[in-house]
Amino acid sequence: MRALNRFMLASLLVVTPLVTVAADDAPGGDPDVTIRQEGEKTITEYRQNGFLYAIKVTPKHGKPYFLVRADGSEGNFIRSDQPDMLIPAWEIFKW
Q1: Which of 61, 77, 82, 85 is the most exposed place for a label (fewest CB within 10 A)?
Q2: DSSP category for residue 88
Q3: Closest by alpha carbon to 42, among 33, 31, 53, 29?
């Protein structure tokens, strides 16, 4: 009986730090939202754990629209209301 109690105490001491580390790495439920002005447009970026997954573009005059990832690539976004239209992300010049 005494050996069983020692084994249970030792296993509890080993498992406790692992549970706290796993709780710290759990994904958050709420997305991070960043709002910025770019010319006459309002850009709202939605991120989950640092991963940009959607952009809402609200023009000063016109209907707002969403850009969502076309695939897992970094800069390939499509409009959610026009899924066949790819948004180019070419970099022509960089200072």
Answers
A1: 61
A2: P
A3: 33
